[in-house]
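Q: What structure does this chain adopt?
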Amino acid sequence: MDVTPPSRAADDAAQGPEADEAARSAERRRWKALGVCLLVGFMSLLDVSIVNVALPSIERGLGASEADLSWVLSGYALTFGLMLIPAGVLGDLWGRRTAFLVGLVLFAVASAACGLAPTAMALVASRLVQGMASGLLGPQISGLIQEMFSGPARARAFGYFGTTVGLATAVGPLSGGLLISLAGSQDGWRWVFFVNLPISVVAFVLALRLIPVSTGGALAGTGRRRVDLVGVALLAAGLLAILLPLVQEQQWRGPAKWSLIPLGILLLAGFVGWERRCPLPLVDLSLFAIRGYRYGVLLGLLYFAGFTPIFFTFTLFLQRGLGYSALQAGAAITPFAVGSGVAATVGGRLVSRHGRRLIIVGLATVVTGTLLTALAVHEVPGQSAALATAVPLALAGTGSGLTISPNVTLALAQVPVARAGTAGGVLQTAQRLGTAIGVASLGAVFFAHLARDGNWAGAFQLGVLVAAAFETCALLCALADARLP
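A:
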């Protein structure tokens, strides 16, 4: 028999609809907060691809050297990658919302500094800070998704984030070309950075209203209260020593510059030794005992060293070598982005069924498309180069879509859930550092050939061969992992 007092029963009946409405309101708020995160993620990722088509405009507007142009891209990728792991720790210490807002303000300030840069050196310095801000934002976006959603809703949220990544890659070159066409080739590049300011202001106001305050840091109770700054310094110094002679190959005469590379290797060895002994290491080296993760990180580094720098030299070849406008150059890159976006959707569904074999197919397709791109430039010289490379670039993009996301999935598949955040941060760091190394290496070959022969098509083809070599190493890495039981 129901013995609930009449007044209690009436209260429960009254609270039922109110509780349901409160739950629906909280659900709507979470998805709106996700929209803010995706907007900021789109903006920071767009700044990687949109700058490619602005490089010739930057060269004309600031009198930038080849090394300056390389640093505009590789410097951004370097500080982006170096910041990812410490940023995850800072988000755990400060709270994701606070770290997100700090990163957003820093990104807006750095974007304004880039747009107002009076010299190439000032632009490079501002890009380094902008890369740090992007690196601070990245882990907070994925962390906030994990905090706000669970179960199928979390999978949907990460799916939307993956779509955002593809969209930013696809529209970046076209957006940059359009902005430069509207604002002029001399100073139009500044609007590539200024466009971030209104987006940042809107996102900051919405983030204050919608993103929830973290209830407690993920490192609460662990005793961790600091970042491994010695590890950060050793890693940064080692990578910088390796990158400097590559980027400055044309500016620094003589063989002495190459002595920095063994110094950089020694510093990286020192970084590994320090991390083994540090009580609170920057990188959990025990993760590399997991074979799938070890191969996944190496594959990511090699692949990003191969495919991302192609667009650096391709836009320079089209605009400076063939006289394309920024908008035409942006349109020429679009087939790769479209192929990548479509294939990424398919790859996400197929990876659980086919595993590493899917990545092998993807990498083989990328290598084929990359080599066919060089062949197309050789066989169809002159103004028709963009048309001739459309199909090879679409093929390479299709392979890329079958590689990047499936590799992340397989690399993290055997990582314990408790260490998934750190493992994901290290994997993203490897990708960004691969980008920095690839831009420096490919740029060194490209500009050295150009300085010697003045042949834009030949310089681009040699650069593409360097990219294909990195991609082939990634393919060999995938084959080695697949052969082992």
